[in-house]
Amino acid sequence: MMEKTFDPAAVEGRIAELWESEGAFRAGRPDRAQGAPYTIVIPPPNVTGSLHMGHALNNTLQDVLCRFERMRGRDVLWQPGTDHAGIATQMVVERQLAQRGEPSRRDMGRKAFLERVWAWKEESGGTIVGQLKRLGASCDWSRERFTMGTDGAPDDQMVRAVTKVFVELHRKKRIYRAKRLVNWDPHFESAISDLEVLQVEKRGSFKWDRPAVDAEEPKPLDLAALEKLLAKDASGHLYYFDYPLEGASYDAANPDTFIRIATTRPETMLGDTAIAVHPENERLKHLIGRKAVLPLVGRLIPIVGDDYADPEKGTGAVKITPAHDFNDFEVGKRHTLAQVNILDDKARILIEGNPDFAAMAGPDAGEVRALHGLDRFAARVRVVALMAERGLVAKIEPTTHTVPHGDRSNVVIEPYLTDQWYVDAKTLAEPAMEAVRTGKTQFVPENWEKTYFQWLENIEPWCISRQLWWGHRIPAWYGPDGTVFVEHSEDEANAAAAKHYGKAAALTRDEDVLDTWFSSALWPFSTLGWPDATPELARYYPTNVLVTGFDIIFFWVARMMMMGIHFMDEVPFSTVYIHALVRDEKGAKMSKSKGNVIDPIDLVDRYGADALRFTLAAMAAQGRDIKLSTQRVEGYRNFATKLWNAARFAEMNGCVRTDFDPKSAKLPLNRWALGELAKAVDEVTAAIEAYRFNDAANAAYRFVWNVFCDWYLELAKPVLTGEDEVAKAETRASVAFVLDGIAKLLHPFMPYVTEELWAVKGAEGPKRETILALADWPKYEGFVDPSAEAEIGRLVDLVSEIRSARSETNVPAGAQIPLVLVTSDAETKAWAGRWNDTLKRLARLSDISFASTPPAQSIQIVVRGEVAALPLEGVIDIPAEHARLAKEIEKLDGEMKKIEAKLGNADFMARAPEEVVEEQRERLEEASARREKLAEAFGRLGGAG
Description:
The protein is an alpha/beta fold. It is about 45% helix and about 15% strand. The chain has a four-stranded antiparallel sheet with strand order 6-5-17-19. Strands 8-15-9-10 form a four-stranded antiparallel sheet, covered by helices on one side. A four-stranded mixed sheet has the order 12-13-11-14.
């Protein structure tokens, strides 16, 4: 006997243990030896992480594909694993040390610290893996991998893979060391990737203009007020400084004696090496070729002509600081400008012991030397004060601008000139682009190819070194004279050094580690055992599809393409499916600061994993973000309940599995239901194959809820309670057969409830050959019966149309109304006679009659080319209803016109938040659909008047 209700909390753990004991998700099962391989590598979540809604969507879609293909007989490998997450993990452990009052990372030393990190990883690093298992992810958990390997030892396979790639690319001159600008996090004292940089909008409030010489009440610059304000937030202001021209005596009233620049970072002026003016700037181009005196420092800097200087922006002249701004760095390269770094790795002013600054400092730089060691923001205030003392500050005004912040440290990121290791990404990008151009790898949706190409065509050298301790240490050793030896091991480096120097030499290993993305770029083949020639590598590479978010197309997808093609001579995956974002129910991005984050595990606890999974799949339309509300999840929990209750109804009515041959069914009702099941299977199959997850889920939903529960079981009730034992037996067997088909159809989306139903229903009847996770995907050829569809489908359509017409025209729910079939066709009359009682019951009809023309005061509906009329005289006030519908249509037209005007307004589209624009589009779509229905009802009533 089935339980009265389906309780996910009581079932999910037991089902997960069943899958584990059966080895259901293991790749290479003997029974799949002849099956074609199907491989997906999981985008490895950070080992520090916990499941968020993006993970839940990403892994649900992967699981749908894997369960689907596993049921189709493929040898599925869903490769799981986690990423060591260099900065995040180091931060977590350092914070833990501080909270416990233990020695800091630097106090305990590298070896002891890394031992603590590994201990933390073993103790607390598996949280997200456990959460993925709760979601029902059918990964081959026996093959779980970690980007740092088992213990990070040099002989570990994952470590050897990373080392081999680095060494080989270095030998091919695709990896090199160079001094360039990087995103520098002063908190971690490390370079970080673009992905780890958040752009935060800032705006200040301080405003001051230099008073005119003859001002009656001159207002001096209140440096104390400015300092107090900047102590709260140093960003958000534009400072206008005058740089005296060479050979001119500075006069604030005479613009011929200076050139004015505007900057948001005054402290960086200490590293200025030029001023740029647009060559076509009519007001300033005469200054190109001259020199200005860099205030405070006394350095003469050239005024160069460059398109980077926008004549319409700021003063039209731009200070160029190549060592502290990415754009300035490029300008500096074009004009062969010196690069003067004025910050240390903690973002403090670096004057003493700075040869670049000393080489270009003028004779009056004495006061600047007092800035040495100051924090950059304290120096900002001091530089403004020094400029003000010299009368060189023209004005200060609030400005709105974006300021880069570290996503982990939350400190302002500095463009910083430093020696780092780089990959020649431009060369590696060429074959990666060609693979997509030729269709070896396809993006779904296709429009993401444009993003992929846009980045690769403009790719910069990839900075792969990080000044951390946790990560793959760079396999480079330095000799006494700085010569670098890049080798697979210390022994090989020593041998190379001895050969180079002619004798043994003391070597020092590079302190840096590799960017986390470097090891994850190897994920599709390193997880399969590369660089060893493993059987798994031969069978499962290349993988079939990558499911990921658009935000890491640059950082991960493209780099896997580069590395896979270079080292495996084959693309790492044939398809890249890019899913959208999961937003809150109003369309806003989820964020902790907004307080709108929805925890997927909370939803699993409340509604079950199946409900959450089905919600995400049903809403995963290509190219459209998901607006998630708990009500939707609750709704799909109710769907699981509906299915469970339908199965209980079947049980109570003796619908037990038998050796039923569905093609032997005689009753049109059963043949129709079996045909509808076959159609649903074909529809779901085609949609999953095309990565239209929402269409697949919704097709399954429609069949289960509408066809099976609402129609088949309803129409089967008289048979199941009737006296015809032959018909009853066939219907019982047919219902049980369809229930099995439903379990298979829904399994990729709702694995827990379907596996439980499979077990419960398998307790009776023929013995199950396997658990549902390993059962065959249904194939129902020859099930569609046109005559049965004509018989039952016609009934379903007619009742549905009558119900719709009643609702649209406000016919009272309890009212019994007549139906007139406008026909003289004998077949139609015979059909109506067969279903007379059913039609009356389901459509609330008082009687059914026939006529050659529709009666007066009736609304008309057309079903399968035949006219049916519903006389409504005395049931509703037809003129009043007609007027109501006209008024509603007019109101909708007005609303739609307003929305269309908004969406057609370029200013609104530019300024409105993304979620507001999307909301307007949805409102327009809903209004349009509603108007269409009202217009149809209006037209029907028009004929009734």
